[in-house]
TrEMBL record:
Residues 1-20 are annotated as: Disordered. The lineage of its organism: Eukaryota, Viridiplantae, Streptophyta, Embryophyta, Tracheophyta. This is Protein NRT1/ PTR FAMILY 2.13-like. PANTHER family: OLIGOPEPTIDE TRANSPORTER-RELATED. It comes from the Eukaryota. The gene is LOC103321704. SUPFAM superfamilies: MFS general substrate transporter. It comes from Prunus mume (Japanese apricot).
């Protein structure tokens, strides 16, 4: 075997040292700009969309199923676009430029939607009531009005798809994760990120929704739009102190090279094959090709053949002669990591589908319940979601300061429980949420049918929805955060943006499933004299049956998740061992 000498790494080391000094000096200052922009952007975006189903029903005269489907399809669309945004950031533009351009797209979308509230011609005229204040006649929306609305939603989806997958990785880039201090700062950043997001959502659920319901939609949309216009200069103000990580090329071509190389070498054996030189091709931390030995595992061994060095695979200078026949172990690890996480990721769909009901049918329930707090104040229907956020605000520090340290003493695990255990607990809370929601809706419907007022409002306090929403807060604490923790822990550094986009891709699939399931239930039920489960009049429908159906799907999903999680091996622990035991051949 020829000798392979790496070029001097002194300039690279000097560059790395300068980067480390910069991140130590400006890390938290840069993160403040990022957190400030992210908080304002979320307040603006969520302030526009949190109560959007009510806007579609009241101002565009849509039935609740059509409004819920539009909201679900929009959510599905922007979640799918997060994958595109992550790829654009990692391959072409970098995270900073992607966030900046996406913010401009979000602003354009918000201005367009805000105009529908300011300009009467861009929405249907108000319904005409009769003397008893019952709705007598409503003019449906026109294609032009819907087209203008959908254009605004499309621009907003493009912007959100570029911002969401890049914010957390861009914040993490400001710290040196190779040092103990840097890793502590990253952990602290993630805590501050999630805390600020929860506070922003609480403000939206209370103040912004109150303005939209009680003052005007124009002001309720205009204020978030003004906030969004101020967040862009704030983000750009930190451009001189940000640490920028250069794009590292396409991931999909790397995946394809591994699959092709593994197929070409499918007949080789990992041990005792005369055509194999006995080593794998790897990439060192400074980017130079080296030859290194790795501990072999039986799982995905067919993919590891892509990195086996066979005669004529290397040139005289030690470089790879054909990237479609010989790949590095780093490339193989990325594919293996993705394939291992994919079944776990797929299980999140049913959990998030239950979570998606909070913004649609839970709001419909609240509209037909007594929302008065005292004699003079009526809670907006969209604000009932505050309870899940309050639960999260209380349980998050309790989990971090009390429960997790106690679990560490019991399980001897550094995080108390593993990410997969955390996800599993979240799935159980998702099942409980749907069951409790179904039981409460059954009681609400019975109360409405026997004692409802003229407008169909049941004499039942909206606070009866809070137990199910408390379970929903626990779903986010364990299930959703567990997925985020797993992706950030398992994915390689160059794939962090793509890893963060997976949770949004899961949300896209879940909202699409929710829309499909609602459409199927709406078309199938309501025959032979039986009530339609999702009737426009929620008191005539059987929403409780729909909730129980999702709960049953949750049981099947948990069985599937448990079967996938049993054989899962954490990549990060293996990677840590390999970094110590790697034997460099010169």
């Amino acid at each position: 075997m020829p000798s392979h000498e790496s070029p001097s790494s002194e300039p690279l080391l000097q560059q790395k040292d300068a980067s480390t000094v910069q991140r130590r000096k400006h890390g938290w200052k840069a993160v403040r700009y990022i957190l400030g922009n992210e908080s304002i952007e979320k307040m603006a975006t969520y302030g526009l969309t949190t109560n959007f189903m009510v806007y579609l029903v009241r101002e565009y005269h849509m039935d609740q199923v059509s409004a819920a489907n539009i909201l679900n399809i929009w959510t599905c669309g922007y979640c799918l676009l997060t994958v595109v945004g992550a790829l654009v950031a990692d391959i072409y533009l970098g995270k900073f430029l992607t966030i900046a351009l996406a913010s401009l797209a979000s602003l354009l979308g918000m201005v367009t939607i805000t105009l529908t509230a300011f300009v009467p011609q861009l929405r249907p005229p108000p319904c005409i009531p009769d003397g008893q204040k019952h709705l007598l006649h409503c003019v449906s929306n026109t294609k032009t009005q819907l087209g203008f609305l959908f254009a605004g939603l499309s621009w907003l989806a493009i912007g959100t798809g570029g911002i969401r997958p890049c914010s957390i990785p861009f914040g993490i880039d400001q710290f040196d994760s190779t040092t103990v201090e840097g890793r502590k700062n990253v952990s602290s950043f993630l805590n501050w990120y999630y805390a600020s997001s929860t506070v922003v959502l609480l403000i939206n659920q209370s103040l912004v929704i109150y303005i939209q319901d009680s003052i005007s939609w124009a002001w309720g949309f205009g204020i978030p739009t003004l906030l969004m216009s101020s967040s862009i200069p704030l983000f750009l103000a930190g451009s001189k102190i940000y640490h920028h990580v250069k794009p590292k090329g396409t991931t999909f071509s790397s995946f394809a090279q591994v699959l092709v190389a593994a197929y070409k070498k499918r007949h080789l054996k990992l041990h005792n094959d005369k055509r194999v030189c006995g080593v794998f091709l790897d990439v060192s931390s400074d980017g130079n090709l080296v030859l290194s030995k790795h501990s072999l595992t039986t799982k995905f061994s067919f993919l590891k053949k892509a990195a086996l060095v066979v005669d004529n695979d290397l040139k005289d200078d030690g470089s790879c002669s054909n990237p479609w026949r010989l790949c590095s172990m780093q490339q193989v690890e990325e594919v293996i990591c993705f394939m291992k996480i994919l079944p776990i990721w797929a299980s999140g769909g049913i959990c998030v589908m239950a979570y998606a009901q909070e913004g649609t049918f839970v709001v419909s329930q609240a509209l037909k319940m007594d929302r008065h707090i005292g004699p003079n104040f009526e809670m907006p229907a969209g604000s009932v979601k505050m309870m899940s956020l309050i639960t999260l605000c209380i349980s998050l520090p309790f989990y971090d300061r009390v429960l997790q340290p106690a679990l560490r003493k019991i399980t001897k695990h550094e995080n108390g429980i593993t990410p997969l255990q955390r996800i599993g607990i979240g799935y159980l809370f998702s099942f409980l949420f749907m069951v409790v929601a179904g039981l409460v809706e059954r009681q609400r419907r019975a109360s409405a049918l026997s004692q409802a007022s003229e407008d169909g409002v049941a004499p039942m306090s909206v606070f009866w929805l809070f137990p199910q929403l408390m379970f929903l807060g626990m779903v986010e604490l364990f299930g959703i955060v567990g997925h985020i923790e797993l992706y950030n822990k398992e994915f390689p550094e160059k794939m962090r943006s793509i890893g963060n986009s997976l949770i949004y891709l899961c949300t896209a699939g879940a909202t699409y499933l929710s829309a499909v399931l609602a459409s199927i239930v709406y078309s199938v039920t309501g025959k032979h004299g039986e009530p339609n489960w999702l009737d426009n009049d929620i008191n005539a429908g059987r929403l409780d049956y729909f909730y129980f159906l999702i709960a049953a799907l949750g049981v099947l999903n948990f069985v599937y998740f448990w079967s996938c999680a049993r054989g899962y091996t954490y990549t990060s622990s293996v990677r840590a061992v390999e970094s110590i035991e790697t034997d460099i051949l010169v």
